[in-house]
Design brief:
365 residues, alpha/beta, Rossmann fold, Dihydrodipicolinate Reductase, domain 2, seven-stranded mixed beta sheet, six-stranded mixed beta sheet, globular
């Protein structure tokens, strides 16, 4: 956005002035739980500060182009989706004197593979999807290079910690010359919820069912229990710090019994109930020593470890509840007293709010 557009002052009665609203065109890929919540945020946003126009949106099969206030239901009247056509049209929009921001709320590897082409066409990207940043190191590097060389922004704050300022804090530390020594903690709101419910006497299988019904867990619980979500988040944190690392180099402890790795998703939960007593007994053993269980990650000495950790019940990790995350960042500057970021790490509303904050970051720059 040009400086003249960003800094125009308008006179209002009484002799006061205010900044002209910061404008942007938005395209949203994915209008499920998070994308739908984001649309609601747009419709409620103060137009005096931000003038955001949704020029189009799509799901896995259809696309619709328009402007003004929208609802996800309007997509049912859309046309069959073709990415080549969508990108060509977005490239035309990017040549206008208004920033164009592509929001990926799909969790689709196909969409993640489009990021490089979008950035090269002068289109800003904001995404909660972890896929693009964890495909392989070379692709991540190409995204960062394309963003810089094409003068566009690539924001992925909500890939770790939903709306918590984890990525931005790390980037600020690195950009100002600090050295990251260790990152540790809980980055899965789903895992926090599951272990907290287990502490309160609920069976593990029942806790999974409840987490799924509340939107905290994926439709196939193995997507959460495998530890893959946490591994990807820590990989993103490590790469943000400048480390070059591939997914297969990360040690991950899965909570999925070997016998259930390949069963039908619909049968998984009923069969997982056979392991409830094992989990209950394990937690009771911890309680006798005033300890409990948390699913944590550790980035240290250029390596990442993901798995179950025994922690003191009265510790910060032991006291986590709801879907809270807790990330501890130790650096040369924050050595004796590490930087701690804590708060809700799951949920469509906090994620949508984090996406909106990233969009506003694009406009502020």
């Amino acid at each position: 956005m040009s400086s003249s557009r960003a800094m125009h002052l308008q006179r209002i009665p009484g002799g006061k002035s205010h900044l002209k609203p910061k404008s942007a065109n938005i395209f949203i890929a994915g209008v499920g739980a998070v994308g739908g919540s984001l649309i609601n945020h747009f419709n409620q946003l103060e137009q005096e500060k931000y003038d955001l126009t949704v020029i189009g949106f799509c799901n896995s099969s259809k696309v619709k182009w328009r402007d003004g206030k929208i609802t996800a239901d309007e997509l049912y009247g859309g046309k069959p989706k073709k990415w080549d056509d969508i990108i060509a049209r977005l490239a035309d929009f990017s040549r206008q004197d208004v920033p164009l921001i592509f929001v990926d709320a799909t969790g689709s590897i196909e969409v993640a593979r489009l990021y490089l082409e979008l950035l090269e066409n002068g289109i800003h990207i904001v995404t909660p999807s972890k896929l693009a940043n964890t495909i392989d190191q070379s692709y991540y590097n190409s995204l960062i290079h394309a963003s810089t060389s094409n003068g566009v922004q690539y924001h992925y704050e909500t890939t770790v910690g939903a709306g918590l300022p984890v990525i931005q804090s790390l980037q600020n530390l690195v950009d100002t010359g600090d050295k990251i020594i260790e990152i540790s903690g809980v980055v899965s709101g789903t895992m926090t919820y599951l272990f907290r419910q287990l502490e309160e006497g609920m069976s593990f299988s029942r806790a999974i069912v409840q987490a799924r019904s509340l939107g905290y867990a994926e439709p196939d619980p193995r997507d959460d229990l495998s530890g893959e979500d946490v591994a990807r988040k820590f990989l993103i944190l490590a790469r943000t710090c400048g480390l070059e690392l591939e997914r297969e180099e990360i040690k991950v402890e899965s909570l999925i019994p070997d016998k259930l790795k390949d069963v039908n998703p619909n049968s998984f939960l009923s069969m997982f109930a056979d392991y409830d007593k094992e989990w209950t007994d394990r937690l009771e053993k911890e309680k006798k020593n005033d300890r409990t269980l948390r699913y944590t990650g550790l980035f240290k000495d250029n390596a990442i470890r993901i798995g179950i950790e025994s922690v003191k019940q009265q510790s910060a990790l032991g006291q986590l509840s709801g879907t809270n995350n807790l990330i501890q960042i130790q650096t040369e500057r924050y050595y004796d007293q590490p930087l701690i970021i804590q708060g809700p790490g799951a949920g469509k509303e906090v994620t949508a709010a984090g996406i909106l904050a990233d969009i506003q970051r694009v406009l502020r720059k």
